[in-house]
Amino acid sequence: MAAYPQNPGAPDAPYLAFWRERHLCTLTTPRPDGSPHVVPVGVTYDPEARLARVITDKASRKTRNVLAAGTEGARVAVCQVAGRRWATLEGRAFVRTEPDRVTEAERRYEERYGHAPRPNPTRVVIEIELTRAMGRG
Q1: Is the dihedral angle over the CA atoms 108, 109, 115, 117 positive or is it negative?
Q2: What are the C-alpha distances in Å from 28 to residues 19, 31, 34, 116, 128?
Q3: pLDDT tens per residue, range 122-136
Q4: What architecture (CATH level 2) is domain 13-136?
Q5: Band (100; pLDDT cuts 50, 70, 90)
Q6: What residues form DSSP beta bridges with 30?
């Protein structure tokens, strides 16, 4: 495992393999009052683009929390745990509504989780521009 940008190099093979396995994750976003809002989500990780993606509804609390952070994006974390293995990705989150970005996020979700997400005409994607990766794959 390696961190962005603190540690040079890319995350190692076991860390990347762990992110390809099917695991429920959590997303932590800041509420407007600064307190953490933690919810279970499906996450996809694109190490080459340094992006994590979460598909959600445009009216969800997590979407509203990210939007409330303004144009600088919200500082967030996604995490998964399986026994002694764990992985956290941190970065700045932005809500994306462009159809091509939503479709790509849905494709990656289906690839990781083995089924297409249920239809949702008000779906958006929370894209997290990653600044740190840590854990033990």
Answers
A1: negative
A2: 18, 9, 11, 24, 12
A3: 999 999 999 999 998
A4: Roll (2.30)
A5: very high
A6: 36
**pTM given for the model:** 0.92
Asked if residues 27 and 55 have their Cβ atoms less than 8 Å apart, the reply is no
* Single-letter amino acid code for the residue at 104: E
* Three-class DSSP category at 14: helix
Residue 61 has pLDDT above 90, yes or no: yes
Looking at residue 80, its amino acid is: Q
Place of tokens 């919200």: 74
Nearest by Cα to 46 from 10, 100, 6? 10
- How many other C-beta atoms lie within 10 A of the C-beta of residue 96? 16
- Alpha carbon 120 to its chain centroid, in Å, reads 19
Residues 6+ apart with CB under 8 A from 7: none
The predicted structure's pLDDT at residue 136: 85
The two tokens of residue 134 are 């840590």
pLDDT at 1: 47
For residue 25, give both structure tokens: 């994750």
Residue with tokens 């091509």: 100
Distance CA 29, CA 32 (A): 10
